[in-house]
Specification:
The chain contains ten helices and no strands. The protein is mostly helical and 248 residues long. The protein has a single domain, classed as MetI-like (MetI-like fold, Orthogonal Bundle). Helix 4 packs across helix 6 and helix 5 packs across helix 6.
Length: 248
């Protein structure tokens, strides 16, 4: 337990010290506020109801977008792995989604959707191709010998999925879901910065930038990092049994 704590405390202390030295060297709070100033601002934000309202709204949007992208990616990945014509039709679209800059999607979606829904759609679009690809890779990892045995014993589709495809696909799926969650979080907050819904972490970041409040900007950024790490840790914990089941 102590070793785990040291692995967190030592790097954190190192970077905070480096930050403090840099802030003292720059000597301009507008460019690089010291850690103490950012800490005081963050503590003040934690005591405001609007902070928690913005955090809750952002978490709701990004979670909804991630789940939507994950479900679509799982369904389309399965269809692509099962039917060649689906692969022919969907592969170019998924490659396009992966390569087009996220800002382009945000601006396009802003024309079509209310500002509060743009982050949801953006997060879903970023998660979709990652889960789609991991689903394809996972299904392709199924052992040919097990597939032959399933055919020999005439297992129905549901039993094939449960006994052959799902265990083979789980490691790739879990890795894909974790990566997709990270991308959905970054893209969702970026969409909030541009679209500025009423209650949103991204809107608060944009407001701090507009008013040249560097301490608030750093404080909100620290909150974004903390929330992202917490979501990823929760996802890893929830997916651990599934990953171990797949490896077993």
């Amino acid at each position: 337990m102590k070793k785990k704590a040291l692995k967190v405390i030592v790097p954190l202390a190192f970077w905070l010290l480096l930050w403090a030295i840099g802030a003292r060297w720059v000597d301009k709070e507008l460019l690089l506020p010291p850690p103490a100033s950012v800490g005081r601002t963050l503590l003040a934000l934690l005591g405001e109801g609007s902070f928690w309202q913005s955090v809750a709204a952002t978490l709701g949007r990004i979670t909804a977008g991630f789940l939507l992208g994950a479900v679509l990616g799982l369904a389309l990945g399965g269809a692509t792995a099962g039917w060649g014509w689906c692969d022919l039709l969907l592969s170019p679209a998924m490659k396009a989604v992966r390569t087009v800059p996220v800002v382009s999607f945000i601006l396009l979606l802003y024309f079509w959707l209310p500002s509060g829904r743009v982050p949801v759609a953006t997060a879903a679009l970023m998660a979709l191709p990652v889960v789609w690809r991991s689903t394809r890779q996972g299904i392709a990892a199924a052992e040919p010998a097990l597939l032959e045995a399933a055919e020999h014993y005439r297992l129905n589709l549901w039993r094939k999925l449960r006994l052959v495809y799902l265990p083979a696909a789980m490691p790739a799926l879990c890795a894909g879901w974790e990566n997709a969650l990270g991308l959905a979080w970054k893209a969702g907050v970026a969409a909030e910065v541009l679209c500025q819904p009423k209650w949103a972490v991204g809107s608060a970041l944009q407001s701090a930038k507009t008013y040249l409040d560097a301490s608030a900007l750093f404080a909100w950024t620290a909150a974004v990092v903390a929330l992202s790490l917490a979501m990823e840790a929760l996802a890893r914990r929830l997916l651990r049994p599934w990953r171990e089941e797949g490896r077993g």
